[in-house]
Amino acid sequence: MTGQPTPPRAALVLLAAGSGSRTGHSTNKVFLSLAGRRVFVWTLDATAADPGIGPVVLVVRADEVDAAHAVLAREAPGRDVRVVVGGASRHASEWSAVQALLPMIEQGEVDVVVVHDAARPLSGPTLFRQIVEAARAHGGAVPGRRQSVLLDRAGLSVRDGEAVGVQTPQAFVAPVLVEAYRAAAQAGFEGSDTAASVERFAPDVTIQNVPGTSTNIKITYAEDLFLAEALLARVSFDLRRLGTASSGGGG
Amino acid sequence: MEQEYAELTCTACGRTVEHELRHVGRLLATTTCTACGHVVEVAPRSMVPAYLHDLEHRVTSKPQRMVRRARRDPARFVRELPGALLRQPAKLTAELWALVRGR
To answer: Looking at residue A247, what is its pLDDT?
Structure first.
């Protein structure tokens, strides 16, 4: 025993509750099989070797808690993952996760909270590392990719200006995030993503843009599953070999 | 062929509805929108190289996965191993057959 305190680590919040209502025998898309693993497990894999990322909170629907535990036992044994039930919205799910992390944040064991959409299985370890480092340095960090053109909806004409497509993981210094979510709860505010609450209730905090990657796709369309599978096969199922931000390409 | 259902957005009808997903081995072979019937599929011939690549990965990672299962529940592992071994030839044959006949 050296008696030296353990340095604080980042906590990962993995949002897997989704939205809307599923009917019949439909599976939550983050529980789908993607090249032999469930979609959300690829994110656990991407962060497993990073000593700077510690506790994980997996947010699921109430009726998927047992399924989540079964997948974790089978595909991520030994990983420190706490399963919590999410709310009716993304914001509510994030707040549930932050509350689950409160004791660790208050004891100084967790200094940064990384919030990630479990439907983005290909973020890769490099992006997670960059996001955590940027959040520690600036207060908050969000990955984004410049969109080359914007289209007006009516005539599909090209509109001037630049837009950034925001991705996850998004990371924030933990006390800032807690205070922002407490203020949001008091105000009855529901942000569309994590950054929205911080921007509104902690306006002095700098949210640094970290270049996102072209492979950091969100499983939305049926075609996305084929694409994700092909991208994984191209790197021999090793997420460390996925494109980094600098090699991600444009658009 | 493995079959499961999930809510995804259809590029044809634009609705977020249940899709039927069919796999060959671990690879996704077709998706079908249950609302409009739009099918997305990989042509069987072009799936063969991907299948072989995936099969290679499955075989090489098998020992590691077996060790993990044995550690997790040794009694269950020993109990289920003979059956799992016996099922493999039929499982692989079914996968190859699905590729050959185009699902």
So the answer is: 42
What average pLDDT does this structure show over B44-53? 81
Q: Which residues of B touch A25 (CB under 8 A)?
A: 5
Asked if residue A153 is part of any domain, the answer here is yes
pTM: 0.85
List the structure tokens of A117: 């959409």
**Between chains, do A229 and B28 touch, taking CB under 8 Å as contact?**
yes
Verify whether the Cβ–Cβ distance B28 to A22 is below 8 Å.
no
Q: Can you say whether the dihedral through the CA atoms of B93, B94, B98, B101 is positive or negative?
A: positive
What contacts A180, CB < 8 A, 6 or more positions away? Answer: A172, A197, A198, A200, A201, A202
Q: Is the per-residue pLDDT at A34 higher than 90? A: yes
CA neighbours within 13 Å on the CB side: how many for A208?
17
Specify the DSSP element, H or E, that contains B5.
strand B2-9
Cβ atoms B99, B51 nearer than 8 A: yes
Q: How far apart are CA A106 and CA A23, in angstroms?
A: 40
What is the pLDDT averaged over residues B67-84? 88
**CATH classification of the domain holding A195:** 3.90.550.10
- Number of domains chain A contains: 1
pLDDT attached to residue A102: 97
E strand or H helix at A124, and its extent?
helix A124-138
Has residue A250 been placed in a domain? no
Task: Examine residue A70 and state whether it is found in any structural domain, yes or no.
Answer: yes
